[in-house]
Amino acid sequence: MMRRTVGSAGVPERAVALMVFVAAFVGGAVVANRLAGKPVPFLRWSVLRFLLGSRRLVREGQVGDGREEALARRVAEVARPGDLDGVIEVIDDFARHKSFLMNVGDEKGLLLDDAISRARPLRLLELGTYCGYSALRTARAMPPGARLYSVESSPANADVAQRIWEVAGVADRITSVVGSLGDGGVTMDRLASEHGFSSGSVDFVFLDHAKEAYLPDLLRIESAGWLHPGSVVVADNVVMPGAPDYLAYMRGEEGCKWRTVEHRTHVEYQKVLPDLVLESTLLGVARP
Questions:
Q1: Residue 275: in which H helix or E strand, if any?
Q2: At residue 216, what are phi and psi to the nearest 5 degrees?
């Protein structure tokens, strides 16, 4: 009978050796990457810290190393008040060279810009504010008289985003709503009673929050009747980290209830890891 040697923590020594090897390999890759002069963005210490903080990120909405607050300070220190383009550039520079941020980024941001420009929406709903970057791009692209409602589960993130929007001069066009559509109806009731969400009132939705919530939250919006034929829903990160049930739903409804364009692109702030952004237009009345 084969015996396995285990370490002091009860972990097989082969597994311990493998973990040590992987850690050493990744650490060496990061060092080599920095010395190469043309670094691969996802081989950076800030990305590794981001991955190590993923459990806290899921639980609290922030990585845990203070990067979100540092971003708000950077914007306040560097950007000119009222310079929307400048604030977006400061955030992109921070994410590329200082600390990785899980916003839509510059490459996929162009897809969001174009979708909003085509749809010309007046009432927009964003799920997942984070530090407010996509809301900045949305405010820049949406037509005069339009308003964005950005729902964020983390009060700390909502505070960071609000401060950044104020520097950019767009806070008067964005309403921050702290909550979640999956909180038993509390946030949806607030959107209806306090912000006028009603039958057919939502022209555009951007999904960039917890990936497992994409489909349940879309179905909640559909059941509430807030969408109308021609409403557009854009979903980020459908491949990385992935929303497979949402992708399957949109593909299954293709040509029936939804018409979807699949934009093949890359994970934010690099050109190696693939991602997918879905741009879906409602063809008929959203059925419960």
A1: strand 274-282
A2: -55, -40
Catalytic residue among 92, 211, 222, 275: 211
CB contact set of 178 (below 8 Å; sequence gap of 6+): 151, 152, 153, 154, 155, 158
Give tens-digit pLDDT for 140-186. 999 999 999 999 999 999 999 999 999 999 999 999 999 999 999 99
Structure token digits, residue 173 = 């066009």
CA distance 110 to 185: 33
Active site residue 60: no
Paired residues of 264 in beta bridges:
276
DSSP 8-state secondary structure symbol assigned to residue 285: P
Q: For residue 132, what are its two tokens?
A: 């407010």
211 catalytic per annotation: yes
Q: How far apart are CA 197 and CA 125, in angstroms?
A: 10
Q: Residue 204 pairs with which residues in a beta bridge? A: 124, 232
Q: 19 to each of 102, 222, 272, how far by Cα in Å?
A: 26, 45, 24
208 labelled catalytic = yes
Q: How far is CA 30 from CA 10, 34, 50, 93, 221, in A?
A: 30, 6, 14, 20, 43
What domains lie within the chain, and their CATH numbers? Answer: 70-282 (3.40.50.150)
pLDDT, one tens digit per residue, over 50-60 is: 555 556 566 66
Q: Is the dihedral of CA 139, 135, 167, 147 positive or negative?
A: positive
In a 3-state reduction of DSSP, which class is residue 206?
strand
Q: Which residue has the tokens 């059925």?
A: 287
Query: Exactly one of 203, 268, 275, 279 is catalytic; which is it?
Result: 268
